[in-house]
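re: ur msg from earlier - yeah i can do the iron/sulfur cluster complex, just paste it... oh wait u already did. ok heres what im feeding in:
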Amino acid sequence: SRPSLLVLDGPPTALGVTTQIEALKGFKTLIREEKAAALYVTHDLSAVAQIADRVVVLYRGKIVEQGPVDQIIGRPEHPYTRRLMEAVAPRMSAGKAAYIDQVKRPDSPSMETCKVTAGYGKITDGRSAIPVLSDVDLTLPKGRVLGVIGESGCGKSTLARVLAGLHTAARGEVLLDGAVLSPIVSERSRHQLQRVQFIFQMADTALNPRQRIGDIVGRPLTFYHGMTAKARWDEVARLLDLVELPAAFARRYPGELSGGQKQRVSLARALAARPDVLLCDEVTSALDAIVGDNVIALFRSLQKKTGVSIVFISHDLSLVSSFAHDIAVLYAGRIVEKGPVQQVLSPPYHPYTRLLIASVPEMRIGWLEDTANSRSALAASGQAVRLAETGCAFFNRCPSAIGGLCDQSVPKLKPVQAKGPHTIACHLH
Ligand code: SF4
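and the outut:
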């Protein structure tokens, strides 16, 4: 419609960093070609640094600061803008894996997957009509956080749903403390259900709007632990306190809470079951930087306090690296690299991990152009993710691909050092 003004209201940036680069490049080109003005409304400051000329900072419905982008990014004055900047200060460049691993690697896993292959549509000979995951082997050691990272569509959420029994794999097994779990949630015992809890991405839809917070958090207490009346009420208050919400919130409905508060209620509900494993699927992607940072700090302290094992699924590598002990990189439904976070974030890299690391947005004007013109980004740009039956799925986007080998043979995960925990699936290694 050849607009004079484009209004981009919270454009999707929770797709994955490489997709985000494509999207931002597209917006910039469109704005330039249309010679249009654009209003870009977002909570993503790193996107603002790449796309805006002027920035307006809103807090509680009021403009608290405004000015040219270099001034706001480089010399923020209002305390709220400064807090926003601190919350998104790149966690990776500031010492890479910020979550210092002081936990001894336990010998026994809490949860494992063995050759999980899953997708959608009819299953024939152990394969789905629309394949998503292929031969996924993962181990979640007791008391540790396993980050699963990958772009939108790589199979992260399908994996979480298979672990929870909400989606049936075409092939493969999910084990809890060495015992095979039924692939169907309704066939899992109450004890098995209690031990694995799910926290969903959208707290808005995960909480029943017609139930009070006290009933939402209290239900698992009755269902799993038989608590009633005063004991249940006291435990709800304790759990709300644990997630830093006032006990009086028990009388409220979800609609009376902010996004961050709702996600805390989801966490309290999951903890009410006293689980051994928490499955967290993009739990901060709908929250702004400050609220998301607070939620992660809470997860971190509760993980240390309770020793719960966590599968933390996210598209945000810097976020995962600040929280997880181990990382699994998922590409087109396959694990291409996994290991302790500091080893995965140090060379040697899988070419896709290298692209992910290079694509983590920086709060620097001009970063988009520099990154979009890098060798690996140019090789990956404009190429769709493809599921490969033969050869490496990253072949069509890989700057190091070896013709005749990479397109013919699927690389297997191999340890970088003999018997070490860091493994890469790439013919280069
Ligand atoms: Fe690139 Fe080949 Fe390695 Fe795949 S196997 S990531 S195409 S070098």
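cool cool. The first strand starts at residue 5 and ends at 9. ping me if u need the other ligands too
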